[in-house]
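Hi there,

I know you've been waiting on this one. I reran it after we fixed the sequence typo, so this is the corrected version. Both the input and the resulting structure follow.
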Amino acid sequence: MSRNNERNIKKHNDKLHKAQDKVKNAEVLRKEKLKQIVKKFNESNTSGDAK
């Protein structure tokens, strides 16, 4: 029996894609958080300059 049968290949690919999706989602979340931080920073700087 071959180790590289369809079932094992599918199982491996599913695991691989799940890991890749997890990394991609983490990166997207980091970018979203960074945008929020920058936005908040810019707002606080603009209100601080007006005073």
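Quick highlight: The chain is about 90% helix and 0% strand.

Best,
R. S.
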